[in-house]
Amino acid sequence: QGLKPIVSTESPALIFGTTTKLASDLPATDSFLGKNKVPDLQKLFQKADGLPVHLKRGVPDKLLYRTTMALTIGGTIYCLVALYMASLPRNQ
User: Fold this and answer.
1) Which residues cross the membrane (predicted)?
2) Average predicted confidence (pLDDT) for the chain
3) Quick check: 54 and 61 in contact, CB under 8 A?
4) I need a surface site. Which of 10, 68, 80, 92 has the fewest CB within 10 A?
5) Distance (Å, rounded) from C-alpha 53 to C-alpha 7?
């Protein structure tokens, strides 16, 4: 009968039986399905129009910037009011 191996020499069954494709097997058109936007964005962001980088894309950037500033100012005021209220002794 002899000794039996502790670890099975057979390969385990596949859990996820999907096949994988190597990059060399893919056609060139399937590897990237969109247009490269980097050169266009580089032209936009490097244009010398006097605007800071975080406002170069127009109205959405301005809206996001102003919302962020409003929330920052509101949060600062809220923290100062909470600090003021915490510093006052309670009347009993």
Assistant:
1) 63-86
2) 83
3) yes
4) 92
5) 61
Query: What pLDDT digit, counting tens, does each position of 22-45 carry?
Result: 666 656 555 567 888 999 999 999
Structure-block tokens of residue 59: 């109205």
Measured in whole angstroms, how far is the alpha carbon of residue 44 from the centre of its chain?
Answer: 22
**Alpha-carbon torsion, ordered 69, 75, 76, 81, to 10 deg:** 150
Q: How far is CA 33 from CA 19, 30, 47, 65, in A?
A: 21, 6, 28, 32
CA dihedral 7→13→18→22, nearest 10 degrees, is 30
Integer CA distances (angstroms), 44 to 10, 35, 58, 65, in order:
58, 16, 11, 18
Q: What's the first-to-final CA gap in the chain, in angstroms?
A: 90
